[in-house]
Amino acid sequence: MTTSGTVGDTVITTQSLIDHGARRCGKFAETLTVEQVNASKQNLYYLLSNLANRGIQFWCVEQTVVGMKALQYVYDLPVGTVDVRNVLYRKTMRPSGSYTSSAGGTVSNAFDENTDTICTQTSPNGNIAVQYTVDTYVTMVGLLPGTSSTVNLIIEYSSDGSTWSTLKNPGSTVLVDNEWTWFIIEPGVSVEYYRVRAVSGTLVMREVYFGTTVTDIPMARLNQDDYTNLPNRNFPSNQPLQFWFDRKLDPQVYLWPVPNNSFVQMVFWRQRQIQDVGALKDSIEVPQRWFPAIQAMLAHAMSLELPDVQENRILLLEKYAKEALYDVEQEERDKSPIYFAPNISPYTR
Q1: d(CA 339, CA 349)
Q2: Which positions ≥6 away from 347 have C-beta within 8 Å?
Q3: Given the DSSP bridges, would you call strands 265-272 and 98-101 parallel, antiparallel or unpaired?
Q4: What are phi and psi of 103, to 5 degrees?
């Protein structure tokens, strides 16, 4: 028996989903007007957006690192954030080394833990490098720019200081003055030399941070009442212990106590919306196992708007959509073991 020998290579475009939806409604795909195609595309957007209301889509859970600033307690979250699942306070060790700048500037300013001093390189496409005395495993790289700009960045490592290899390639990066941009290095390497290089653009840095050992401490979640009832919401501390997630149009996280250290991070695992539908030639951002359910739900949504679709067909499409969605949601789980530890001591003393 001959099989394709491939898995996941079949591309289902937005146009294909709409065409199949039309046929399930008893229509020829080529008879759809531009208005009907656009309406079907919007229906696809609606149903993908609504999935966030039904539970967690595990492929839409992402790890994000936000650099804290001293005495700042409100932090914006990325667009499309639905919820935060875990929020951690992170500290990273910053071993000392020898520092160089290939394009001028006072390189010590980028490593002095003073956010008011700036290393301004005098020519583009330069790099800022560190050399350690022993092989060092870097897990985090942070940049605190001294000006707002867009720079094409690459993070590199070397065992001898002359031959460099790519550690991470962020590419075109928008840097905002006095706001941290952090990069998680996975997997890392253990070498003596690291550098941040501008492929295009000029490096103007308040701080360049190569972090090694990471310590993560969970923060507890507060509801709105508990947060607003705190007697002193501006109370400063080296380590925030709790957070409130404000689910507004542009979601934000409020920390308490207020951090007073600009060299620590907040790491959160956030649930985000599925990506926008995009062009008709594009595919949608769902795993292969979800396509039958998405197709069934789109066909039912289209049947409610296309003209002259028989009522019994609409009911049949609704039945198929509910069954397909039920099947796929039952499988949308991480299958990790669950441990229950009942405590009946209050009833047995």
Answers
A1: 24
A2: none
A3: unpaired
A4: -130, 40
Q: Which domains does the chain have, with CATH numbers?
A: 14-55+274-330 (no CATH), 58-92+216-272 (no CATH), 98-212 (2.60.120.260)
Q: Alpha helices of the chain — where are they, by DSSP H?
A: 14-24, 34-50, 224-228, 291-303, 311-331, 345-348
- How far is the C-alpha of 36 from the C-alpha of 19, rounded, in Å? 11
Model-wide pTM > 0.90? no
Residues 6+ apart with CB under 8 A from 290: 328
Measure Cα distances from 168 to 138, 186, 199 in Å.
12, 9, 13
Strand bridging mode 258-259 / 236-237: parallel
Q: Which of 43, 30, 69 is nearest to 255 (CA)?
A: 69
Residues lower than pLDDT 70 in the chain: 346-349
pLDDT tens digits for range 208-244 = 999 999 999 999 999 999 999 999 999 999 899 999 9
pLDDT digits (tens, 9 = 90+) for 146-179: 999 999 999 999 999 999 999 999 999 999 999 9
Question: Which residue, among 65, 121, 109, 118, has the nearest Cα to 90 in the 3D structure?
Answer: 65
Q: How many residues does the chain have?
A: 349
CA distance 123 to 101: 11
